[in-house]
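ugh ok fine here u go
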Amino acid sequence: MNIGQAAKASGVSAKMIRHYESVGLFPEAARTDSGYRQYGDKDLSTLRFIRRSRDLGFSIEQIRELLALWQDRKRPSRQVKAVAQAHIDELDAKLRELQAMKATLEHLVHCCHGDERPDCPIIETLESGQPRHSDRKA
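structure:
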């Protein structure tokens, strides 16, 4: 099948298939005499594996490692678990960062009067990193 058909069957866009080939995550496809890429069932399985890995937020390097483990039928499962656990740890760190951002924004929104005055702690914080304390009462 050609790249368009492979994209449709795998759920990976043709652009991303070419990208994965260019970064060495996915092997370059066989080509017809006229230069068109050709993909088989094994390629589709690999593309689906990559897509599901990306859906879970694994990085390209983590997917490269998972692909190697997937293709090694003698792999110890502890190696797969270690990759997944490292990703969970990264997700936990990102979640903490997002929660801190949300708390900061909630505080700033709460402090903003949202009226006709130009004073706005949100803008002041974005400008200087610290909200200015206004002498005016709300």
